[in-house]
């Protein structure tokens, strides 16, 4: 069987490449050994955000009396939350499969072996492809001295498969996965602790974001152990480098993901490349590979979900070594909409040089949408003076961006 393009991996990178190639009239075969949608749809972005929404709603209802909403005997059924999560995944997966089939893309559910740069083999067939793209994704990372046992030491995949919540949990690592699950567990009254090797939580973010996250977590009684590591585990007792002994019911090891690589294909996109492991980065790589639409890899927004959301793009303040930049801040509590929504926590910080934005760091409700406005301005080299001419609607969180321009 011969095709214009063969794609190994059906996650955001792979299915996006397939969809764009199909729209161009190319013949495409897409190989997926598990389920279409990859980590993002099945074991990452979508299921986590579905659970997180339930956690946010439950937490808001616990504190709804001041909003005039009286709730008595408030409770939750975690099995129903997981059931809803599974239904969302199934619905989105079926929609995605239909889109691929409508473009006459051949989906082969099998383990694909790359023979050479134009040949793919499965158990039963040989496929000749003029071009091969590998988008094999990533998997949870562990350490030689701290490995998943899938009972006590869990991966993010294990956590998503749980039907009941533990009474207590220790999260090792405070990237996006660690932060979001700390928020989920805390909202559902699980005793939550988090250990981070770096000096601050969410070390990839701007320092002001890290400090604000720590403040929020402390207010939620999440125990924080920064500049720390797990020294050893004995009889389910976790001994930290600092000497503390913790006895969690479960451990979530959330120290990142490692690429699943193929070593022959020249065209590698998505998490398998080992660059930026974000679904939207993978999607843009796929579009660039198939349609030739370039994008600036230095202008990829990052978002950590929960309430308030956390988002950033561009330069961090701690990376700017000189004083040749300007900084402006506004507290979210200064924005009228935040009081209406009972979500006044956070800030917007904009960094600029030569009258153009070089970085933005946001902790706020709707931060994921706010950072996109900044991304558009940065991508198009729009000056701060020209941004001042834009009319921002009232009342909105976007007004905070406008106020930061002055």
Estimate the global geometry from the Cα principal axes: globular
CATH fold topology of the largest domain: FAD/NAD(P)-binding domain
Task: Please tell me the total number of domains.
Answer: 3
Q: Say how many strands there are.
A: 22
| Rg computed from alpha carbons, rounded to a whole number of angstroms | 23 Å
Description of the molecule:
The chain is α/β, with parallel strands linked by helices and 406 residues long. It has 3 domains: 2-139 and 257-291, FAD/NAD(P)-binding domain, CATH 3.50.50.60; 153-253, FAD/NAD(P)-binding domain (3-Layer(bba) Sandwich); 302-404, Enolase-like, domain 1. It contains 12 helices and 22 strands. The protein has helices at residues 12-23, 38-43, 45-62, 78-102, 156-161, 176-187, 207-219, 279-291, 336-340, 367-379, 384-387, 399-404, and strands spanning 2-8, 28-31, 106-108, 113-116, 119-121, 126-134, 138-140, 153-154, 168-172, 191-195, 223-225, 230-234, 237-240, 245-246, 250-253, 257-259, 267-268, 302-304, 309-314, 326-331, 347-353, 356-364. Strands 1, 2, 3, 4, 5, 6 and 17 form a 7-stranded mixed beta sheet that branches. Helix 6 links the parallel strand 9 and strand 10. The longest helix is centred in the first third of the chain and has 25 residues, at 78-102. It is globular. It starts with a strand and ends with a helix. The mean pLDDT is 95.
How are the secondary structure elements laid out?
Layout: E1 2-8, H1 12-23, E2 28-31, H2 38-43, H3 45-62, H4 78-102, E3 106-108, E4 113-116, E5 119-121, E6 126-134, E7 138-140, E8 153-154, H5 156-161, E9 168-172, H6 176-187, E10 191-195, H7 207-219, E11 223-225, E12 230-234, E13 237-240, E14 245-246, E15 250-253, E16 257-259, E17 267-268, H8 279-291, E18 302-304, E19 309-314, E20 326-331, H9 336-340, E21 347-353, E22 356-364, H10 367-379, H11 384-387, H12 399-404
